[in-house]
Amino acid sequence: MKVAFIGLGTMGYPMAGHLVAQGHDVTVYNRTTEKAARWASEHQGSYQETPALAAQDADIVFTCVGNDDDVRQVFNGEHGILKSVRAGTLLVDHTTASPDVAIEIAELAKQIDCRFIDAPVSGGEAGAVNGVLTVMIGGDAADFAKAEPVMRAYAKSMSLMGPVGNGQITKMANQICIAGVLQGLSEAVTLASQSGLDIDKMVDVLKHGAAGSWQMENRASTMNKREFDFGFAIDWMRKDLGICFDHAQKIGVELPLAKQVDAKYAELQQQGLNRCDTSVLIKQYDSE
Amino acid sequence: MKVAFIGLGTMGYPMAGHLVAQGHDVTVYNRTTEKAARWASEHQGSYQETPALAAQDADIVFTCVGNDDDVRQVFNGEHGILKSVRAGTLLVDHTTASPDVAIEIAELAKQIDCRFIDAPVSGGEAGAVNGVLTVMIGGDAADFAKAEPVMRAYAKSMSLMGPVGNGQITKMANQICIAGVLQGLSEAVTLASQSGLDIDKMVDVLKHGAAGSWQMENRASTMNKREFDFGFAIDWMRKDLGICFDHAQKIGVELPLAKQVDAKYAELQQQGLNRCDTSVLIKQYDSE
């Protein structure tokens, strides 16, 4: 299949590679052209200088860029995807963005007889490299059915969550849950370790019970050892939480805990910890 | 073995029953004597009118009462356990109480050549009834080794967490983690359901990822349906969080999230929801 992939960041770079490995004819675009050229030389693929050029012959176009404005730019900018794609092309956005931008682009796509689904992912860099991402999709069932076998190149789990925008809603819920789990874990690990408890032993006892969580199993020990040079950076978490706050305000839902966690992340960014994993939240206890 | 069991509440009543089923000679005491008499008639056991009388011939004495004051009363009150037990008796306190009271009773026990371990449990009423509790123990290894085969009557997992008091520290960490998970889940489920997402579908997608938790798997769906007539009552959660706050203040650790969750539980108690499961936290969104 002729595939375009727009955005070769931490996630997109390996994802596009998996598409080549699965036998697709892949053309990429990246804002920094050198990176696109490097990708093309490392893989059996080609690159173009604009999203429009990369997408013009594609059967399916994937995007994985930074934020709402980037999504608008690559789709609807002067050299955007919507300027060149053929009628019938399927457009799949892997960016974590707002449901509003998803609905907006889906509407524009419809006007030129193209289809759009929002498809944010979870699983982080490791998930992208190992091809085991989870994809949360908003859109029509027929479009999902068309995209699914292609996305299987880098996803182990793909779920249709409802109409366009619902992939993004699901991703928001994911990030808010993580914020809650990590703040509870920060408080619990600090209290316990300052009381002399062996944190690894504590995790072994608690992880299968009512307090158990993925973060407890995978992060409590490293939090206690102050190891954060892996995982999902707080820069990205803050971007995602910002999307949550905008949406929550729009529908009139308060997110008090998520807001407080975000404020703590803002302080940690100021301390230069912006590339650290979200579990760095425990360092709220380290300021003197 | 001759066993005494003091405190036939929601947890103690079935726990004492499991000890009989395992072949022990069990004598119980309960503040309300009628309940002790009922327990004795339902099981092959006997009851006494005071903790001292119940404990006097025992090889091992279990206690499972309400709070620190209750622990002090049943051990060190006028008719307390310490007034009658033989030298060499092992005392096991299953109450969720403060590490301070554990250390205090352990010291008093030592003065009469008895041994004490703190052994709070998790797993709730269902865990007690089904004999699959998790026990977190603070004390000496030799005492733990002696208690372990007896506790196996109602526990599936028992772990020695360090010296006396460390069982209680572990239980605190458990409750604080639960508070964090539940507040995150309350915010996420509310945002998602008010955005039209199918919560059961959302749980299926998120539960195995970085946002996953026991509470998500077991409570998100019932939270969304406003079902709370099971599980662990917020009355008890508030008691446990109070122990956390006292201890945290003593060692100088802030617990901002746990405090906020506790304040929300206090409001829900005022609304008469005090016997509801801790997942009732989501009803913070239902006040008009």
Would you write up a description of this structure?
- Chain A folds into two domains: about 1-165, 3-Layer(aba) Sandwich (Rossmann fold); about 170-285, N-(1-d-carboxylethyl)-l-norvaline Dehydrogenase, domain 2 (Orthogonal Bundle), CATH 1.10.1040.
- In chain A, about 50% of the residues lie in helices and about 15% in strands.
- Chain A has helices at about 10-20, 35-40, 50-55, 70-75, 100-110, 125-130, 140-150, 165-195, 200-205, 215-225, 235-250, 255-270, and strands at about 1-5, 25-30, 45, 60-65, 90-95, 115-120, 120, 135, 155-160.
- In chain A, the strands form two sheets. Chain A has a six-stranded parallel β-sheet, with helices on both faces.
- In chain A, strand 4, helix 4 and strand 5 (about 90-95) form a beta-alpha-beta unit.
- Chain A is elongated and about 65 Å long.
- The first copy, chain A, starts with a strand and ends in an 18-residue tail after the last helix.
Question: In DSSP terms, counting alpha (H) and pi (I) runs of 4 or more, how many helices of chain A?
Answer: 12
Mean pLDDT of chain A: 97
- Structural class given helices, strands, pairing of chain A? alpha/beta
Strands of the widest sheet of chain A, in order across it, are 3-2-1-4-5-6
